[in-house]
Amino acid sequence: MDGTFAPSAKTACSETPVARPEEDACPSVDAQDEVPSENEASSVSAERGPCELDVLRGEIFSEELEQNAVEQMFQWMKERGGQAENEETELSGSALLEAAHHGRHVAELSLALFGALSARLGLNMRWARLLAQAALWHDLGFAVGGRRRHHKRSMEIIEGNDRLSLSFGLEESDRPMVALLARYHRRAWPSEKHRRFAALSEEDRKALCGAAALLRVADALDFRHKGAVEEVRVSLHRRSARVVCFGAESCRKECRRALKKGDLLESLLGGRLEVRQGKEGDRNVF
Q1: What's the CA gap between 259 and 167, in Å, rounded?
Q2: Global pTM?
Q3: What's the average model confidence in pLDDT over 55-74?
Q4: Nearest Cα residue to 2 out of 217, 227, 229, 272
């Protein structure tokens, strides 16, 4: 696992049931025992055009997202001049390229999970946009100093590097939330012992826990940074959730990692999380 979790963190993220999201996320999920009512089904207006989540997914594939992040990080470091006094302030070009590429794949996986689980977690489309941005940038700290405490360094970079331009319609006022979400992609759960988290409203604390749970699982599903998990299908039940992963090669290591990092999601769902690799013929079952 990425680390141990404080009991107080579990309490902060699981003490109150989450509410239904305010905006339709156009989810795609086989949700057994949870058939929407007629009123719920009619809440998706035909006049809205393409599903907002599908549009957001399309934006993820813009090549400019990776290129801009790389260029903006190098410009930021250049402007800092001779401040690189130790290994934690040196920027590795190869690590930055890998972090940007990995981040986009994690963003794609995060939105796939969001589409299936947002209603259960009480997340609206604002959180889909925050999640996508945090996923893209969650490993920037790895490129500036390596693995040790890179989740916290990512938070600090996102907060301090105003050259990093926010995407997906997000505004500068959203930057602190993106930074905090990136901070929780590994190690400790969100906790009221953490100053930034404690300062949020109760509603934002609950939503951030849900988004962080999805980011942690999505990050695990690209554990080796190889893109082995190309697609996920989710079945949601009353007391469990099943994530079936598909890819051209074995992704069993990613599935095992997702189970380890999925404990926050299990806590929020109030049930068991199953993650396994599917067979090619299983695609038609979902």
Answers
A1: 30
A2: 0.81
A3: 91
A4: 217
